[in-house]
Amino acid sequence: MTDATKPSSPYDLPDVSGLVVGVLGGTGDQGRGLAYRLAEAGQQVVIGSRSADRAANAAAELGHGVRGADNARCARESDIVIIAVPWDGHKALLETLRPELVGKIVVDCVNPLGFDKKGAYALKPEEGSAAEQAALLLPESRVTAAFHHLSAVLLQDPGVEQVDTDVLVLGEERAATDAVQALAGRIPGMRGVYAGRLRNAHQVEALVANLISTNRRYKAHAGLRVTDV
After folding, report:
1. Tens of pLDDT, residues 123-165
2. Which residues are in the Pyrroline-5-carboxylate reductase catalytic N-terminal domain (predicted)?
3. Is residue 5 over pLDDT 50?
4. What is the pTM of this model?
5. What is the 3-state secondary structure (H, E, C) of 110-171?
6. CATH classification for the domain delimited by 20-218, as one of 3.40.50.2300, 3.10.50.30, 3.40.50.720, 3.40.50.1000
7. Do 170 and 139 touch, CB atoms closer than 8 A?
8. DSSP label at 4?
């Protein structure tokens, strides 16, 4: 495993092609989609699940050299770990994996949402956001937030050659956010854009509720673009 190097300018991102990416929740739709796209781009990918057998089966279906493992092994063997689990399992998972995630770049893409007859709406965690909860639970990890606004349908569709969207990346450490921006840029059509510190993560996570409403109205798979950067 190698370390991402700090770039010399805002537009000079590090080479992350040699890093191993773990996807916790890699058997769910969003996790599978991210694993597929990153592996297709040539990234080494390990997907994690509570069941190693389930992870291995999902990895075999994805191909592209994706490996499957239980969550702890996935975290240990990865340089960058993407958290793509349902909100209701977020805290418990991170509490159990704290030792394995020490020193790792952790990318939280969990969206705390509720649903009722009016549709999706944002939840406000006590810590402020899912990413801030992760940072409190993982004080020795390099926590970032990204990949919130991606369509799992587009990610998993092999007929879609490019996923045209920007990925908002938040975090406290410049080298970590630059590495995640570079990772997003490995996927054709995607661009990572720095969007502030973790204290701003709630509105980024909450925006998914608006995108769900947009998608339902227009029967689309909407993404985001940031202009003039």
Report:
1. 999 999 999 999 999 999 999 999 999 999 999 999 999 999 9
2. 21-112
3. no
4. 0.93
5. CCCEEEECCEEEECCCCCCCHHHHHHHHCCCCEEEECCCCCCHHHHHCCCCCCCCEEEEEEE
6. 3.40.50.720
7. no
8. P
